[in-house]
UniProtKB/TrEMBL annotation, chain B:
Protein name: Nitrite reductase (NAD(P)H) small subunit
Keywords linked to the UniProt accession: 2Fe-2S, Heme, Iron, Iron-sulfur, Metal-binding, Nitrate assimilation, Oxidoreductase
SUPFAM superfamilies from the UniProt entry: ISP domain
Occurrences of domain Rieske (ranges): 20-121
GO molecular function: 2 iron, 2 sulfur cluster binding; metal ion binding; nitrite reductase [NAD(P)H] activity
Lineage summary: Bacteria, Pseudomonadati, Bacteroidota, Flavobacteriia, Flavobacteriales
Pfam families xref list: Rieske_2
A Gene Ontology BP annotation from the UniProt entry: nitrate assimilation
NCBIfam families, alphabetized: nirD_assim_sml
Domain of life of the native organism: Bacteria
Organism per entry: Zobellia amurskyensis
Length: 856, 125
């Protein structure tokens, strides 16, 4: 007993003697990664770890620094909370700079003059922005872009500018990766952005001049002004910056300047204690991350490895991994000789990526280049002379294939015979030339920030039972760095699930563990008519604003019931059969099928609008919108409209809006057929049908396409010998041309195909997804769709036809129902305990009409 | 009159001085809301039938200062009853008034009781 006791004491004192101290200088991204990696190892028990950080907070995600402009939430960027360090027995001292290293005594001193002894010292001091010695850089309003404090200072200054004038301007010095990100950031701050680059092109290190031109055009279209080939001589202004001088009377007036002209390693500690340094800075390390003093390691942007500084996180993380292994004596883990510097630009709203050798002289290899300036597209791949290996490439405008090309490059995957298909590929026809992410070898590193392989991602799904990208991210850390690998990880998760016979779960919300399509089938199968019943039988809890309108849409699609029956599960607009507007008033839109309206109807509408003092405007869909109706006025207005022969236009519903038409062969000298008659017929056919999202149609009398039918969910264009049928088009935020479903068919066939297309969409689309987005995601695309609706490959067309005919036969005007039913009419009062109306609504006049008073 | 946020302050059940008779319970839609007027206030009252509970809050959405919350959909998130503004779907807890999907100001909430046929809202003045 006594001996055991003694033994324990001895052991613990021995242990504390044996405990070695690691001091980490710098708590940035790489310094933190070092802590995270060592804490995960058992051997960490043998070390006491002390970390110094000069910044006032624990390490945060610098890569996503620009997100701070959007949310101003420093916490959201944090890599780990302070408590994490304590839990892992790591002593983190923030707000404290290490000022000297004494190699003889193995100690460091800090800014507050304290001394600490180390056995191993890890320098992770990162870098600082390079500020060129331009006359005037010290002026007020000149910033760098590296820390949260920098951003706070920029935001405050921008506010000051904006308070003084409405058209403030900010320049960015440097048109590299970071500079462009900063350009977008100042634009989002409400300043006019100007990027000034010394080289003749943007992103000189990653792009060739043609791609750089394409990028410049796109950025200029977005409102970012580019000035390339400009050397800044002087910063103008008396105290605060007012402009930049490029020499020879060439100046640019600006109110603020952000310098983003490259980085310089923060190697001052290495210099003063005489470690071996690079000629242009950086602390020299070997492949074990050791400096010229074997007890001192350097990792991240301060380390000079193979005569290079690597300004990206992924190499820094790998260095951290190597240093950890060296310190815990897994000596065999060393740094790879070649470091991948491929990059994808994030956040700025245009895809830009480059990998491997982005551009090179012709004797080194051959290039395949695709450029389309009208679409802002440029793609280049460089291929070895024998056509077998991918050497590198550039993508501007569309970097969707970046991940897979990058992987082919990293893993030396042999190229297909027609290498050009890699960039111009048979896309859209379902699948690209080079198969899927599943074809990569298991060893392929998918997430380079966290060094996660394809094998690890798939394993985490197949063996460990993770089912979503989120779960896989938690288990493997993939996607948690720069996030660039997310699409590929998502693909791998999906494919791995498929190999298990499962599909990706797309549950609606916390109340229903089903996708919309599943719920649709359940409702139909179980013949459920009430939301409450649905919740009780297949859901949980009490519902929310996501599942309620979704269920309402399903009930409407299956039973063609109007929004009047279960009014409290309807979306805002459906609940009162009108579109709620800015000040809580509503707009009223009667149906004007095909845009055809008689003078008598026009006069009736005019009279009613005048009586209720409504603002009137022609809509984009060729009808008339009357704004500013108060809740209690809605039934009164509709009563009069219905008496004049109008019916509801369902402008409020996720349902058919309008079928736009050109004037067609009845009047137009080019017309091949009667577009108006067709539009009216089809609009009346589909009116009132509720669907996952709103949908629109168009009919043009000839290929001049005056009705813009190819910008609609479905469109018909008259051609020699019949109608061409198009589906899946969209205007709006993400324009997409409709695709050809059938050519030169007669009217009846055209209608039949669109009937089936619409029904198939209604049954299978996820909530709030327009036909365009649905078709984009539909596996097999338009080819598959043709097979379903024309060749009946699923054997469902009879059912689709019957369901559609049922819709057409059971249509009723829900406003007629509402004004004729006293209980429904009663809903249209602002107060239930008073006849007063809402006195919060105020209007001001506008061009002889009225509009809501501005939001305060 | 353009509404003022400071008109609305939450009332706790212990501080109720006036139980205002808002109207017959039958006038409130099931699992939905309606608006009442009390002095210069507009109050949204919700009949959360599924939970057999009633809630009341200001009708004014603090996002764009519109009198619309009573027309919003109600629901539940992590066991919290909530209302979603019909204009931009900001959601607020019907218990605490807290904005659940953003950082807007909390809305004021009021106690509700049903006696006999009638619904009463509690005010402190
Ligand atoms: C806006 C922005 C966007 C970026 N985007 C990307 C991207 O998309 N992809 C990518 O790969 N990389 C990107 N980077 C680069 C990436 O952030 C860096 O590569 C990474 O942060 C380097 O990590 P580090 O730990 O070496 O340096 P840092 O993160 O800079 O950390 C060094 C820390 O050490 C502290 N320190 C320095 N000296 C001392 C001392 N003597 N005593 C105590 N503490 C000290 C510093 O204050 C700092 O906190 C971006 C950088 C910025 C600024
Ligand atoms: S699309 Fe053809 S038919 Fe129709 S208005 Fe234009 S030119 Fe005439
Ligand atoms: S484009 Fe925007 S602002 Fe204009 S009507 Fe549509 S949603 Fe409103
Ligand atoms: S006004 Fe209520 S969410 Fe915008």
């Amino acid at each position: 007993m006594f001996y055991t006791y003694l033994y324990v004491i001895l052991l613990s004192s021995l242990k504390s003697k044996l405990m070695k101290t690691i001091i980490v200088v710098g708590n940035g991204m790489v310094g933190y990664k070092f802590c995270e990696k060592i804490a995960a190892r058992e051997e960490s028990e043998n070390f006491k770890i002390i970390v110094f950080g000069e910044e006032p907070r624990a390490a945060y995600d610098r890569v996503h620094l620009s997100e701070f402009f959007g949310n101003r939430d420093a916490k959201a960027l944090e890599l780990a909370p302070m408590s994490w360090y304590t839990e892992n027995k790591i002593e983190l001292i923030v707000n404290e700079r290490v000022t000297d290293i004494h190699r003889k005594t193995k100690t460091v001193t800090t800014g507050s003059d304290k001394e600490y002894t180390y056995d191993y010292l890890v320098l992770a001091t990162g870098s600082s922005p390079f500020v060129p010695a331009i006359n005037g850089v010290e002026k007020e309003g000149v910033f760098v872009y590296r820390t949260i404090e920098d951003l706070e200072a920029m935001l405050n200054y921008a506010e000051k500018i904006k308070a003084k004038k409405s058209n403030g301007r900010a320049a960015i010095l440097g048109g590299g990766l970071l500079g462009l990100e900063a350009g977008k950031a100042v634009m989002d701050m409400g300043l006019e952005p100007h990027v000034v680059e010394y080289a003749p092109k943007l992103m000189p290190r990653q792009l060739d001049s043609r791609s750089s031109n394409v990028l410049q055009l796109t950025l200029e279209n977005m409102g970012i002004n580019i000035h390339s080939g400009k050397a800044t001589n002087r910063i103008l202004g008396n105290g605060a910056i007012t402009g930049m001088d490029f020499g020879e009377d060439d100046t640019l007036e600006v109110d603020m300047l952000v310098i983003s002209a490259g980085i310089r390693p923060r190697d001052e500690l290495g210099k003063t204690c005489n470690l071996e340094m690079g000629i242009r800075g950086g602390i020299v390390v070997n492949d074990r991350m050791q400096t010229s003093d074997p007890n001192i390691f350097a990792i991240g942007e301060v380390a000079l490895y193979n005569q290079m500084i690597y300004g990206l996180v992924a190499p820094g993380y790998e260095m951290a991994e190597v240093a950890v292994n060296q310190i815990i004596e897994s000596f065999e883990i060393v740094m790879r000789p070649e470091i991948d510097m491929s990059t994808k630009l994030k956040l700025i709203g245009v895809d830009v990526a480059s990998f491997g050798i982005p551009y090179m002289p012709a004797d080194k290899g051959l290039s395949i280049i695709y450029e389309n300036k009208t679409k802002g597209l440029y793609k280049r791949i460089n291929v070895s002379h024998d056509g077998k290996t991918l050497l590198g490439g550039i993508m501007v405008g569309d970097a969707e294939d970046y991940s897979i090309l990058h992987q082919m490059y990293l893993n030396n995957i042999p190229l297909p015979d027609n290498a050009e298909e890699l960039i111009v590929g048979a896309r859209g026809e379902g699948g690209s030339a080079f198969g899927s992410a599943m074809d990569l070898p298991d060893t392929a590193v998918i997430c380079s920030c966290e060094a996660v392989t394809k094998g690890a991602v798939c394993c985490s799904v197949i063996d460990d039972g993770n089912e979503t990208v989120k779960e896989v991210a938690k288990a493997t850390k993939a996607t948690t760095g720069c996030g660039g690998c997310k699409p590929m990880v998502a693909d791998l998760v999906k494919e791995s699930l498929k190999s298990l016979g499962k599909t990706v779960k797309e549950s609606i919300c916390e109340h229903f563990d089903y996708s919309r399509q599943e719920l649709f089938d359940i409702v139909k199968l179980k013949n459920i008519h009430d939301y409450d019943q649905l919740l009780d039988e297949v859901g949980k809890g009490h519902g929310c604003e996501v599942c309620k309108p979704l269920a309402a849409s399903i009930f409407a699609s299956i039973y063609n019931e109007t929004a009047n029956r279960q009014e409290t599960i309807q979306d805002s607009n459906d609940r009162y059969l009108a579109n709620i507007q800015r000040n809580g008033t509503y707009s009223v839109v009667p149906r004007v099928a095909g845009g055809e309206i008689s003078p008598k109807q026009l006069m009736a509408m005019g009279r009613i609008a005048k009586k209720y003092d409504l603002y009137t405007k022609i809509t984009g869909g060729q009808r008339i919108d009357m704004f500013g109706a108060k809740l209690h006025e809605l039934p009164l207005i509709w009563e009069e409209l219905i008496a004049e022969g109008f019916e509801t236009g369902q402008a409020y519903g996720k349902s058919l809006r309008t079928v736009k038409s050109c004037v067609g062969s009845t009047w137009c000298r080019y017309g091949m057929d009667e577009s108006v008659s067709f539009a009216i017929e089809i609009e009346n056919r589909y009116k009132g049908i509720r669907s996952p999202h709103k949908f629109k149609g168009g009919v043009s009398g000839c290929i001049r396409e005056c009705a813009e039918a190819r910008g609609k969910d479905f469109g018909f264009i008259a051609v020699e010998g019949g109608w061409n049928v198009y589906v899946g088009g969209n205007g709006g935020a993400t324009p997409r041309h409709a695709e050809l479903l059938a050519e030169k068919v007669d009217k009846e066939t055209a209608i039949k195909y669109v009937d089936r297309f619409m029904m198939f969409y209604i049954k299978t689309a996820p909530p709030l997804t327009r036909t365009a987005a649905w078709l984009d995601k539909l596996e097999g695309g338009i080819t598959y769709l043709k097979n379903v609706v024309i060749n009946d490959s699923l054997g469902i067309v009879d059912e689709l036809d019957t369901d559609m005919q049922n819709f057409v036969d059971t249509y009723k005007c829900e406003w007629k129902e509402a004004v004729e039913t006293p209980e429904i009419r009663e809903r249209y009062t602002h107060f239930i305990n008073s006849d007063e109306t809402d006195d919060n609504i105020e209007f001001v006049s506008l061009r002889e009409q009225k509009m809501p008073k501005e939001w305060a | 009159m353009i509404a003022n946020l400071s008109t609305y302050e939450s009332v706790q059940p212990d501080n109720v001085k006036v139980w205002f008779k808002a109207g017959p319970a039958s006038k409130f839609p099931k699992n939905g809301g309606a608006c009442i007027k009390y002095k210069d206030k507009q109050i949204a009252i919700f009949n959360f039938t599924r939970q057999a509970t009633w809630y009341a809050c200001q009708n004014l959405c603090p996002h764009k200062m519109e009198m619309v919350l009573s027309r919003g959909m109600i629901g539940e998130e992590d066991m919290q009853p909530k209302v979603a503004c019909p204009l931009h779907k900001n959601t607020f807890s019907l218990k605490t008034g807290k904005n659940l999907n953003g950082s807007l100001d909390a809305i004021a909430t009021y106690p509700v009781k049903v006696e006999g046929e009638f619904v009463f809202v509690g005010f402190s003045e």
